[in-house]
Every structure is written in structure tokens, then in C-alpha cells.
Amino acid sequence: MSKTYFDQVAPLWQQLQQSFFSEEVREKAFAAADIQAGQITADIGAGAGFMTEGLLARGLQVIAVDQSEAMLQQMRSNFGGSAKLDLRLGSAEKLPIDNQEVDYAFANMYLHHVPQPPQAIAEMARILKPGGRLVITDLDKHSYQFLKTEHHDRWLGFKRETVRRWFEEAGLKEISVEGVGQNCCATSSCGSECASVGIWVARGKK
Ligand SMILES: C[S@@+](CC[C@H](N)C(=O)[O-])C[C@H]1O[C@@H](n2cnc3c(N)ncnc32)[C@H](O)[C@@H]1O
After folding, report:
1. Is the CB of 153 under 6 A from ligand 1?
2. Of 143, 60, 158, nearest to 109 (Cα)?
């Protein structure tokens, strides 16, 4: 189960994440949202705080949500002193955030873990203020089964046109889904397989 997996890898997550992809991914996401200092943002499936770190550095307030208490504990030790960070335990089906509470919602490498991706997208659209932006960064469709067995990925990535349709169904406008120009790389534990999968950034406006 992915929650148990993420509870176990939480202390190592920052190191693991750095081996999978670079900060360029979050730079592309922030550019897609056109973030402005002082605004309120949600980081959904925040993990150890890869997106949150960049958002706090740019002067935004962050509500970080994750299903894993161990990941939230990592965030506390990484950014514990920040008055601009609000950590909330919660899951994809019912985010612990009110309707229209945030200006932006980000979710990096989260969508391929959730049971029902279109519902998760609709739930992230729900929390946006009118005019707010949802930006998701995730993987192209692939066939590396070891990412399921070893990293507990629930979905082997997504077709970009499918993600666009889910954004439309969530009532979002001005949608784009584009490659970030970088691949996510991981090697299987036995070293026999090396996954290299394209990363896309999807943006929509409420
Ligand atoms: C691959 S990690 C990505 C973490 C972080 N966004 C990053 O870029 O490093 C996925 C995160 O999503 C969380 N997650 C997975 N499924 C979830 C769900 N259904 N509800 C809430 N969080 C979930 C996991 O606990 C984990 O911290």
C-alpha cells in the first residue's frame, strides 16, 4: 500500500527525489502558474516538500497536504519554523481545504499514486478561487512495471490528451499540457532495468 511505502521512505525521500528529477521541474510548474508572492497555494501530495521549498522561497503561503504523517514530519523538520507553512494530513478524495481557499494548487508526482485521478483533479479544482490555477507535473504513459512493484506507483503514467480531458471535466479553462523537457529516471533494485520517462506539466484556470 502506498501510504505504508511513503511512511517508510519519508526520511530518505529528499535524496531519492533528487535522483529522479531536477529542480527544473518545479521551475516549469511555477512558470506555468505565473506565481506571485503573497498568494496562497496548496501543495498536494507534498512529500518532503520539494514544491513547498520553492514556493516558500518565492514568498508564497503554502498549505501542504499529504496522506503520510511521516512525510509531514519531514516537512516539520525541514521548514518547521516557517509561519507561512500550514501542514495538513489528508487524502486525495477529500482534501482538508475549504472551497475556493487557494490561489494555486500544485501536485508534483502525485497523480500516478492516487486511486482515482479524475476525481483527484476535480477535488483540486474545488479548492481554487475563481481565476486560480491548477498545475500538475507527472509522467507520460510508460511500461516500466518495476515502478509499480518497487515504488508503489498505481498508474504507469498518463497520456497527455487524457489529462487534458480530465482538466476539462473539472471545469477548468485555458488548459495546456506540455513536456517539461526532462525525463524522470529510476533504476530497478536489481539494476537490470532503467526507466526514463517524459515529464509533462498540465495547467488549467478556474
Ligand atoms: C512521489 S511522492 C511526491 C512527493 C513530492 N510532491 C515531491 O515532488 O517530491 C507522492 C506523495 O503523494 C502522497 N500521496 C500518495 N497518494 C496520496 C493520496 N491518495 N492522498 C494524499 N497524498 C497521497 C505520498 O504520501 C507521497 O508523499
Report:
1. no
2. 158
